[in-house]
Write a structure and sequence with these properties.
Elements (H helix, E strand, L loop, with lengths): L5 E4 L9 E4 L1 H22 L4 H22 L7
Antiparallel strand pairs: 1-2
Length: 78
């Protein structure tokens, strides 16, 4: 029997809206898959001062915003 990855619930007054929640089994599998790479990424990031990481986050946020603007057809707004 296949393991269920998510559980569907109807928590909203509009019964057409369905909420999906990961099952404990799905979270275990995700942790097993992503845990090792997360640990390695943390090890790399921990070598840098928080100020530099904040600057990097700002740059990445601005780059994403620029891409979003281009994709929505508002390229003249940059």
């Amino acid at each position: 029997m296949a393991r269920q990855a998510s559980v569907r619930t109807r928590e909203h007054t509009d019964r057409r809206i369905v909420t999906l929640r990961s099952t404990p089994q799905a979270m275990e599998r995700a942790e097993a898959f992503f845990g090792p790479v997360n640990a390695r990424q943390y090890a790399v990031l921990s070598r840098y001062p928080s100020e530099l990481l904040q600057q990097l986050e700002t740059v990445l946020t601005q780059l994403c915003s620029t891409m979003d603007t281009q994709l929505t057809g508002r390229a003249g707004d940059v």
